[in-house]
Amino acid sequence: MLVGEVLDLVRDLKASGSTILMATHEMAFARDVADRVVFMHGGRIVEEGPPEQIFDAPQEPETQEFLARVTHR
């Protein structure tokens, strides 16, 4: 399966009411599909919350630095 097919499958599973726990570096996808985002760094949870909070107003420096690198904001 290609990445796009996997992401489509996850969207379909969510639409059907399935609960999914997944790790991804696809930030746009996580923002679009997730109900809750957990950011981990160094094997520990650094920050968690709804996608809007994590992506629009991250509180922790590790989260801010990561998002600045991968989203070019």
UniProtKB/TrEMBL annotation:
Subcellular location: Cell membrane
Keyword vocabulary terms for this entry: Cell membrane, Membrane, Transport
InterPro entries: MetN_ABC_transporter-like, P-loop_NTPase
Location of region: Disordered: 49-73
Membrane topology: Peripheral membrane protein
Family named by the database record: Belongs to the ABC transporter superfamily.
Name listed for the protein in its UniProt record: Glutamine transport ATP-binding protein GlnQ
Organism (species): Demequina litorisediminis
